[in-house]
Design a protein that fits this description.
About 35% of the residues lie in helices and about 20% in strands. It is built from 9 helices and 14 strands. The structure holds (5S)-5-amino-3-OXO-hexanoic acid and zinc ion.
Protein backbone atom coordinates (compact mmCIF):
# COMPACT_ATOMS: atom_id res chain seq x y z
CA UNK A 1 0.00 0.00 0.00
CA UNK A 2 1.06 3.59 -0.60
CA UNK A 3 1.82 5.92 2.27
CA UNK A 4 -1.18 7.67 3.81
CA UNK A 5 -2.11 11.08 2.45
CA UNK A 6 -3.59 13.16 5.24
CA UNK A 7 -5.65 16.20 4.32
CA UNK A 8 -6.33 18.83 6.92
CA UNK A 9 -9.54 20.83 6.57
CA UNK A 10 -9.00 23.41 9.32
CA UNK A 11 -11.97 25.75 9.02
CA UNK A 12 -14.74 24.90 6.51
CA UNK A 13 -17.77 27.09 5.97
CA UNK A 14 -20.16 26.04 8.70
CA UNK A 15 -18.40 25.79 12.06
CA UNK A 16 -18.44 28.93 14.19
CA UNK A 17 -16.03 30.23 16.80
CA UNK A 18 -18.84 29.99 19.28
CA UNK A 19 -18.96 26.22 18.71
CA UNK A 20 -15.17 25.82 18.48
CA UNK A 21 -13.12 28.59 20.14
CA UNK A 22 -9.91 27.27 18.53
CA UNK A 23 -11.32 27.67 15.00
CA UNK A 24 -8.83 29.59 12.84
CA UNK A 25 -10.55 32.39 10.94
CA UNK A 26 -8.06 35.15 10.06
CA UNK A 27 -5.47 34.52 7.33
CA UNK A 28 -2.72 34.43 9.97
CA UNK A 29 -4.62 31.97 12.16
CA UNK A 30 -5.39 29.68 9.22
CA UNK A 31 -1.75 29.74 8.09
CA UNK A 32 -0.57 28.97 11.64
CA UNK A 33 -2.85 25.94 11.80
CA UNK A 34 -1.58 24.89 8.37
CA UNK A 35 2.05 25.01 9.51
CA UNK A 36 1.28 22.97 12.64
CA UNK A 37 -0.75 20.45 10.63
CA UNK A 38 2.11 20.04 8.15
CA UNK A 39 4.52 19.46 11.02
CA UNK A 40 2.14 16.86 12.41
CA UNK A 41 1.97 14.97 9.09
CA UNK A 42 -0.60 16.55 6.76
CA UNK A 43 0.24 16.71 3.05
CA UNK A 44 -2.81 18.60 1.71
CA UNK A 45 -4.80 21.51 3.06
CA UNK A 46 -8.45 21.73 1.98
CA UNK A 47 -8.91 25.45 2.19
CA UNK A 48 -11.88 27.64 3.03
CA UNK A 49 -11.45 31.22 4.17
CA UNK A 50 -13.49 33.67 6.23
CA UNK A 51 -14.11 37.41 6.01
CA UNK A 52 -13.40 39.91 8.75
CA UNK A 53 -16.69 39.08 10.44
CA UNK A 54 -15.75 35.39 10.47
CA UNK A 55 -18.28 34.51 7.75
CA UNK A 56 -17.41 32.14 4.88
CA UNK A 57 -16.23 33.93 1.75
CA UNK A 58 -14.77 32.92 -1.61
CA UNK A 59 -13.12 36.33 -2.01
CA UNK A 60 -10.08 35.91 -4.22
CA UNK A 61 -7.97 38.43 -2.31
CA UNK A 62 -8.53 36.66 0.96
CA UNK A 63 -7.62 33.33 -0.64
CA UNK A 64 -4.52 34.96 -2.17
CA UNK A 65 -3.40 36.24 1.23
CA UNK A 66 -3.88 32.89 2.98
CA UNK A 67 -2.25 30.95 0.15
CA UNK A 68 0.74 33.27 0.17
CA UNK A 69 1.18 32.76 3.92
CA UNK A 70 0.89 28.98 3.60
CA UNK A 71 3.20 28.74 0.59
CA UNK A 72 5.89 30.85 2.22
CA UNK A 73 5.98 28.60 5.28
CA UNK A 74 5.14 25.09 4.04
CA UNK A 75 5.26 22.77 1.03
CA UNK A 76 1.63 21.71 1.57
CA UNK A 77 -0.54 20.95 -1.45
CA UNK A 78 -3.19 23.66 -1.42
CA UNK A 79 -6.66 22.50 -2.39
CA UNK A 80 -9.08 25.42 -2.55
CA UNK A 81 -12.75 24.81 -1.94
CA UNK A 82 -15.12 25.53 -4.79
CA UNK A 83 -17.97 24.17 -2.66
CA UNK A 84 -17.91 27.33 -0.58
CA UNK A 85 -21.05 27.62 1.50
CA UNK A 86 -24.62 26.63 0.66
CA UNK A 87 -26.35 29.51 -1.13
CA UNK A 88 -23.29 31.00 -2.83
CA UNK A 89 -23.49 31.54 -6.59
CA UNK A 90 -21.39 29.49 -9.00
CA UNK A 91 -19.26 32.50 -9.98
CA UNK A 92 -18.68 33.32 -6.35
CA UNK A 93 -17.55 29.77 -5.64
CA UNK A 94 -15.19 29.65 -8.62
CA UNK A 95 -13.17 32.74 -7.66
CA UNK A 96 -10.13 31.05 -6.04
CA UNK A 97 -9.40 29.09 -9.25
CA UNK A 98 -7.99 32.35 -10.65
CA UNK A 99 -5.04 31.80 -8.29
CA UNK A 100 -4.15 28.53 -10.04
CA UNK A 101 -3.91 26.35 -6.92
CA UNK A 102 -2.57 22.81 -7.33
CA UNK A 103 -5.96 21.32 -6.45
CA UNK A 104 -9.58 22.31 -5.94
CA UNK A 105 -12.61 20.51 -4.61
CA UNK A 106 -15.31 19.67 -7.14
CA UNK A 107 -18.64 18.75 -5.60
CA UNK A 108 -20.12 15.72 -7.39
CA UNK A 109 -23.80 16.71 -7.39
CA UNK A 110 -26.80 18.04 -5.51
CA UNK A 111 -27.87 16.78 -2.11
CA UNK A 112 -29.70 17.86 0.98
CA UNK A 113 -27.37 19.49 3.49
CA UNK A 114 -29.02 19.67 6.87
CA UNK A 115 -32.15 21.77 6.34
CA UNK A 116 -30.78 23.21 3.10
CA UNK A 117 -30.00 22.05 -0.43
CA UNK A 118 -26.41 22.06 -1.70
CA UNK A 119 -27.18 22.85 -5.29
CA UNK A 120 -24.86 21.39 -7.96
CA UNK A 121 -26.85 20.53 -11.11
CA UNK A 122 -25.10 18.97 -14.14
CA UNK A 123 -24.46 22.26 -16.03
CA UNK A 124 -22.71 23.65 -12.94
CA UNK A 125 -20.59 20.49 -12.61
CA UNK A 126 -19.58 20.78 -16.25
CA UNK A 127 -18.69 24.46 -15.91
CA UNK A 128 -16.62 23.83 -12.77
CA UNK A 129 -14.79 20.82 -14.30
CA UNK A 130 -14.11 22.76 -17.50
CA UNK A 131 -12.69 25.71 -15.56
CA UNK A 132 -10.40 23.36 -13.58
CA UNK A 133 -9.22 21.64 -16.74
CA UNK A 134 -8.46 24.96 -18.42
CA UNK A 135 -6.64 26.24 -15.33
CA UNK A 136 -4.53 23.09 -14.89
CA UNK A 137 -6.04 22.45 -11.43
CA UNK A 138 -6.49 18.86 -10.26
CA UNK A 139 -10.01 18.29 -8.93
CA UNK A 140 -10.77 16.33 -5.80
CA UNK A 141 -14.28 15.04 -6.45
CA UNK A 142 -16.37 15.44 -3.29
CA UNK A 143 -18.83 12.58 -3.00
CA UNK A 144 -21.67 13.15 -0.52
CA UNK A 145 -23.73 10.20 -1.81
CA UNK A 146 -23.22 7.37 -4.31
CA UNK A 147 -24.87 8.98 -7.35
CA UNK A 148 -22.11 11.59 -7.37
CA UNK A 149 -19.62 8.96 -8.58
CA UNK A 150 -21.83 8.41 -11.63
CA UNK A 151 -21.95 12.18 -12.24
CA UNK A 152 -18.14 12.23 -12.20
CA UNK A 153 -17.98 9.34 -14.68
CA UNK A 154 -20.32 11.31 -16.98
CA UNK A 155 -17.82 14.19 -16.84
CA UNK A 156 -15.03 11.76 -17.78
CA UNK A 157 -17.07 10.67 -20.81
CA UNK A 158 -17.44 14.31 -21.84
CA UNK A 159 -13.68 14.80 -21.57
CA UNK A 160 -14.06 17.27 -18.70
CA UNK A 161 -12.37 15.10 -16.08
CA UNK A 162 -9.10 13.32 -16.85
CA UNK A 163 -7.84 10.25 -15.00
CA UNK A 164 -6.24 9.57 -12.62
CA UNK A 165 -9.29 10.65 -10.64
CA UNK A 166 -9.16 11.48 -6.96
CA UNK A 167 -12.30 11.29 -4.81
CA UNK A 168 -13.13 12.34 -1.26
CA UNK A 169 -16.11 10.68 0.42
CA UNK A 170 -17.76 13.12 2.81
CA UNK A 171 -19.89 10.87 4.97
CA UNK A 172 -22.36 11.76 7.67
CA UNK A 173 -23.84 15.01 6.36
CA UNK A 174 -27.51 15.01 7.41
CA UNK A 175 -29.46 14.45 4.19
CA UNK A 176 -26.68 12.60 2.36
CA UNK A 177 -24.86 9.26 2.75
CA UNK A 178 -24.34 7.89 6.26
CA UNK A 179 -20.91 7.54 7.85
CA UNK A 180 -20.92 3.76 8.11
CA UNK A 181 -18.21 1.22 7.25
CA UNK A 182 -20.65 -0.45 4.85
CA UNK A 183 -21.17 2.81 2.98
CA UNK A 184 -17.44 3.47 2.73
CA UNK A 185 -16.78 -0.04 1.42
CA UNK A 186 -19.52 0.34 -1.16
CA UNK A 187 -18.25 3.72 -2.38
CA UNK A 188 -14.61 2.60 -2.53
CA UNK A 189 -15.62 -0.47 -4.52
CA UNK A 190 -17.66 1.69 -6.91
CA UNK A 191 -14.70 3.72 -8.15
CA UNK A 192 -13.11 3.19 -11.54
CA UNK A 193 -9.74 1.36 -11.65
CA UNK A 194 -6.78 3.61 -10.94
CA UNK A 195 -8.73 6.14 -8.88
CA UNK A 196 -7.51 7.22 -5.45
CA UNK A 197 -9.78 8.20 -2.56
CA UNK A 198 -9.93 9.68 0.88
CA UNK A 199 -12.68 9.86 3.46
CA UNK A 200 -13.94 12.71 5.63
CA UNK A 201 -16.25 11.40 8.32
CA UNK A 202 -18.43 14.01 9.95
CA UNK A 203 -18.34 14.47 13.73
CA UNK A 204 -17.72 11.35 15.79
CA UNK A 205 -17.30 9.34 12.59
CA UNK A 206 -14.08 11.09 11.60
CA UNK A 207 -11.73 8.83 13.53
CA UNK A 208 -13.31 5.41 12.83
CA UNK A 209 -13.64 6.12 9.11
CA UNK A 210 -10.08 7.44 8.90
CA UNK A 211 -8.96 4.21 10.58
CA UNK A 212 -10.91 2.15 8.08
CA UNK A 213 -9.35 4.12 5.21
CA UNK A 214 -5.90 3.34 6.58
CA UNK A 215 -6.73 -0.36 6.53
CA UNK A 216 -8.40 -0.31 3.10
CA UNK A 217 -5.64 1.59 1.30
CA UNK A 218 -7.50 4.89 1.07
CA UNK A 219 -6.49 8.25 2.49
CA UNK A 220 -7.94 10.43 5.25
CA UNK A 221 -9.18 13.96 5.88
CA UNK A 222 -9.42 15.39 9.37
CA UNK A 223 -10.00 18.86 10.78
CA UNK A 224 -12.53 21.25 12.19
CA UNK A 225 -14.47 21.56 8.92
CA UNK A 226 -15.88 18.10 9.59
CA UNK A 227 -15.29 17.52 13.30
CA UNK A 228 -14.48 19.80 16.22
CA UNK A 229 -14.07 17.17 18.95
CA UNK A 230 -11.06 15.19 20.08
CA UNK A 231 -13.31 12.75 21.91
CA UNK A 232 -16.87 12.81 23.20
CA UNK A 233 -17.46 16.05 25.09
CA UNK A 234 -13.89 17.33 24.60
CA UNK A 235 -13.15 19.91 21.91
CA UNK A 236 -9.94 19.40 19.93
CA UNK A 237 -7.48 22.17 20.76
CA UNK A 238 -5.97 22.25 17.30
CA UNK A 239 -6.27 20.69 13.89
CA UNK A 240 -2.72 19.41 14.29
CA UNK A 241 -3.81 17.21 17.19
CA UNK A 242 -6.35 15.51 14.97
CA UNK A 243 -3.67 15.00 12.31
CA UNK A 244 -1.16 13.68 14.86
CA UNK A 245 -3.61 11.09 16.13
CA UNK A 246 -4.17 9.69 12.64
CA UNK A 247 -0.40 9.64 12.08
CA UNK A 248 0.02 7.53 15.24
CA UNK A 249 -2.68 5.09 14.22
CA UNK A 250 -1.40 4.85 10.65
CA UNK A 251 2.13 4.22 11.89
CA UNK A 252 0.91 1.26 13.94
CA UNK A 253 -0.93 -0.05 10.88
CA UNK A 254 2.04 0.24 8.53
CA UNK A 255 1.01 3.39 6.62
CA UNK A 256 3.34 6.24 7.49
CA UNK A 257 2.17 9.67 6.34
CA UNK A 258 3.08 10.83 2.84
CA UNK A 259 5.03 14.09 2.65
CA UNK A 260 3.53 16.58 0.17
CA UNK A 261 5.93 15.55 -2.61
CA UNK A 262 5.07 11.89 -2.05
CA UNK A 263 1.38 12.82 -2.16
CA UNK A 264 1.99 14.67 -5.44
CA UNK A 265 3.42 11.48 -6.93
CA UNK A 266 0.58 9.30 -5.63
CA UNK A 267 -2.05 11.72 -7.00
CA UNK A 268 -0.31 12.28 -10.34
CA UNK A 269 0.33 15.97 -9.69
CA UNK A 270 3.29 17.69 -11.29
CA UNK A 271 6.15 17.78 -8.73
N1 LIG B 1 -19.54 23.85 2.81
C1 LIG B 1 -20.19 22.83 2.05
C2 LIG B 1 -21.55 23.31 1.63
C3 LIG B 1 -16.20 21.72 -0.57
O1 LIG B 1 -15.48 22.41 0.10
O2 LIG B 1 -15.98 21.45 -1.74
C4 LIG B 1 -19.42 22.44 0.86
C5 LIG B 1 -18.05 22.02 1.06
C6 LIG B 1 -17.48 21.18 -0.01
O3 LIG B 1 -17.38 22.34 2.02
ZN1 LIG C 1 -14.96 22.14 2.14
Amino acid sequence: MEKLIITVAPVGAEVTRREQPYLPVTPEEIAKEAVAAREAGAAIIHLHVRDEAGKPTQDVNTFARVMELIKSQTDLIIQVSTGGAVGMTAEERLQPLALKPEMASLTGGTCNFGDEVFYNPPPLLEAFARRMLESGVKPEIEVFEAGMIQNALALVKKGLLKPPLHFDFVLGVPGAAPATPRQLLYLAESLPAGATWSVAGVGRHQLPLATLAIILGGHARVGFEDNIYYRKGELAQSNARLVARVVRLAGELGRPPAAPDEARRILGLAP
